[in-house]
Design goal:
By secondary structure, this protein is mainly α. The chain has one domain. Helix content is 82%, strand content 0%. Helix 1 runs antiparallel to helix 2.
Amino acid sequence: MSDALAAAEAQLTKLETELSTAAAHLRDCKAHLRNREIPRYAAHLLATQGHVLNAQNILNELAIAHASRSIPNPEFNP
């Protein structure tokens, strides 16, 4: 596997972890909201957003890396 592919795979693992953790925080949010524990709900909601932002940053890095290597196909340009 090339270095670029290995790096992309590592980033995907980080992305998976961030999104899984965000989902876990959302489950906690629901439970705290049902129990009317608003401060705890809000804390987990903010944590969710933090993990989503981290995931977005990873996706941005992957997109930038792809753009640096991608060559447009002239057949698709009118």
